[in-house]
Design goal:
This protein has 84 residues and is mainly α. It contains 4 helices and no strands. It holds the Pfam family B12D.
């Protein structure tokens, strides 16, 4: 006999849980990636006060971020490129 605590979880609901978990995981991954790797994100007040940096390393990192595969894929899906 199954415990009463999990009686509301039915096998038909498992695909819904999987889809929601996948969606939430993708959102967390995307947000974390943007927060940690984008050169435009400035967490601390001292770095925000500096304004736009002209450091060659940051400019190169910004170009690499801008031309990443994931951004290109998003541009294709939104119709911003003339590929399709």
């Amino acid at each position: 006999m199954a415990p009463k605590a999990f009686q509301w979880v039915k096998p038909e609901i498992y695909p819904l849980f999987a889809a929601l978990g996948l969606g939430i995981g993708a959102c967390v991954y995307s947000s974390t990636r943007n927060f940690l790797h984008s050169p435009e994100v400035r967490v601390y007040k001292t770095s925000r006060a500096d304004g736009a940096s002209e450091d060659p390393a940051l400019v190169a990192a910004g170009k690499k971020y801008k031309t990443s595969f994931y951004r290109m894929l998003g541009d294709i899906k939104q119709g911003k490129t003339g590929i399709f």
